[in-house]
Specification:
21 helices; DNA Cyclobutane Dipyrimidine Photolyase, subunit A, domain 3; 5-stranded parallel beta sheet; Rossmann fold; 3 domains; Serine Threonine Protein Phosphatase 5, Tetratricopeptide repeat; 7% strand; alpha/beta; FAD; 5 strands; globular
Length: 453
């Protein structure tokens, strides 16, 4: 007998319910990845995520080969390709991870119907990409939890299953595969220069290093921009090179205040997923419509994208995004608040730009975090505006983060780097750095009156 393990956002062999489910169901397994043309057509396969994905696929293929198997790669319409492979191999079951976006939900329905038409079974593993599956924690009257703190309390108490080990042997039937794709072939365009390498091997190495020490400083330093003291595991979690259940399990084993704070942060992933599972429209539409009269894309948004707003902390973070395909969470909060509230530009403009560049770009986490900051999401204090100067004082007090990312300001010492407009005339003139594009007090007034009555 044959079963298909269809990899999507779970590109790993350890703690893989999809691979394990297929192995338990049949003598032979087709570990299959389809380069879905729908994802490319939707513009979701960008140079950064394409390059990272290519690394993940090469590593997954190598891990399967070590176990006597290999990865089978096809490209085209995912449903058509899976059915074709089922036909070619006589596979009776297809195992796949549950997913929440509207695109993924539609795709799953199409796949289920197509397989049913061939008398094949689709087995969806709801726990393959989350710790607690969407829908498992819900208040009595709702399809999802709208407030994080009570969600987190129940999430912590729920207790996840134990992680599964990697299989020792994977026997694959004789079947054609395309060669593993090259990064450039996946998404045209050049990836960011500071992109991390994709794949489960690198992911596990980083997780081990992280839990071996740095996590202990997480509670104190996670918001310190210059310290750069977060795990940077987000791309590996996005592509499923790491199982969130295993990450949480190992962090809890490690214990301590740092590990606990880190686990709490991982719960946000599940929180956003269950919001999107219940409200797929929130990827595009306001989760809570507050009648904002957003300003459209234009010159201000362009300065924001270019990292030339004249507010050094905002510009530093925007440039980190371009160079690394990643941005520190505090930077994401500050730059998103600056676009959506200070410039009062539609949050969708910013969310699109983030998705174009972030290697961890994720519909649930990106769109719902943007909505959180813009005040249309699940935030309990939707009118908070982050002042970039006050944020600078708290989270980059010495100005080191700004000097790291804004070379024009490197010769300015200490915290003076955050207010270049106050520098002595000749120094100010020498710096090729713009004046602020907006007055913060005027911007605050515009935001407060911007909402229609
Ligand atoms: P750590 O601080 O080490 O946290 C560990 C893990 O917890 C992260 O890898 C991530 O999986 C999860 N996590 C942490 N914070 C959050 C959060 N606020 N929401 C959801 N999950 C979280 N995260 C993404 O993975 N993809 C995105 O597209 C994304 N877009 C964002 C957009 C905005 C405007 C904001 C404010 C946040 C966004 N985040 C996104 C959340 C967060 O910024 C990143 O997950 C985090 O910066 C990744 O770095 P890290 O792995 O070092 O995080």
């Amino acid at each position: 007998t044959v079963a298909i393990a269809l990899f999507t956002a779970d590109l790993r062999t350890h703690d893989s319910p999809v691979l394990r489910g297929a192995l338990d169901a049949a003598d032979q397994v087709v570990p299959l990845f389809v380069l879905d043309e729908g994802i490319r057509a939707a513009g979701f396969r960008t140079p950064n995520r394409g390059a990272f994905l290519a690394g993940c696929l090469a590593d997954l293929d190598a891990a399967l080969r070590e176990r006597g198997g290999r990865l089978v790669i096809r490209s085209g319409d995912l449903v058509r390709e899976v059915c074709r492979v089922a036909e070619e191999t006589g596979a009776g079951q297809v195992h796949v991870a549950g997913d929440v976006s509207a695109f993924a939900q539609r795709r799953e329905e199409r796949l289920r119907a197509a397989l049913a038409g061939m008398r094949r079974e689709l087995c969806v593993h709801a726990d393959a990409a989350v710790v607690i599956p969407p829908g498992a924690i819900t208040p009595a009257d709702k399809g999802h939890s709208a407030v994080f703190t009570p969600f987190f309390r129940k999430w912590s108490a729920a207790g996840a299953r134990r992680p599964l080990g990697a299989p020792r042997k994977v026997s694959v039937p004789d079947i054609d595969s395309e060669p593993p794709p090259e990064a450039v072939g996946l998404a045209g365009g050049r990836p960011s220069s500071g992109l991390p390498p994709g794949g489960e091997t690198e992911a596990r190495r980083r997780l081990k290093a992280w839990l071996g020490g740095p996590v202990d400083r997480y509670e104190d330093l996670h918001d310190d921009l210059a310290a750069d003291a977060t795990s940077r595991l987000s791309p590996y979690l996005h592509f499923g090179c790491l199982s969130p259940i295993e990450v949480v399990h190992r962090a809890r084993q490690r214990g301590g205040a740092g590990a606990e704070a880190f686990v709490r942060q991982l719960a946000w992933r599940d929180f956003n997923r269950q919001l999107l599972a219940d409200r797929p429209d929130a990827a595009r539409d306001d989760y809570r419509c507050r009648q904002d009269r957003w300003r459209p894309d234009g010159e201000d948004a362009e300065a924001w994208r270019a990292g030339r707003t004249g507010y050094p902390l905002v510009d530093a973070a925007m440039r980190q995004l371009v160079t690394e395909g990643w941005m520190h969470n505090r930077g994401r909060l500050i730059t998103a608040s600056f676009l959506a509230k200070t410039l009062y530009v539609d949050w969708r403009v910013g969310a699109r730009h983030f998705l174009d560049l972030l290697v961890d770009g994720d519909v649930a986490n990106n769109q719902l975090n943007w909505q959180w900051v813009a005040g249309t999401g699940a935030a309990t204090r939707p009118n908070v505006v982050l002042n970039p100067l006050l944020q600078a004082r708290r989270f980059d007090p010495k100005g080191d983060y700004v000097r790291r990312w804004v070379p024009e300001l490197r010769e300015v010492e200490g915290s003076a780097v955050h207010r270049p407009w106050l520098l002595p005339g000749d120094l100010r003139r020498r710096l090729d750095y713009p004046d602020p594009i907006v007055d913060l007090d005027e911007a605050l007034a515009r935001f407060r009156t911007g909402r229609a009555a």
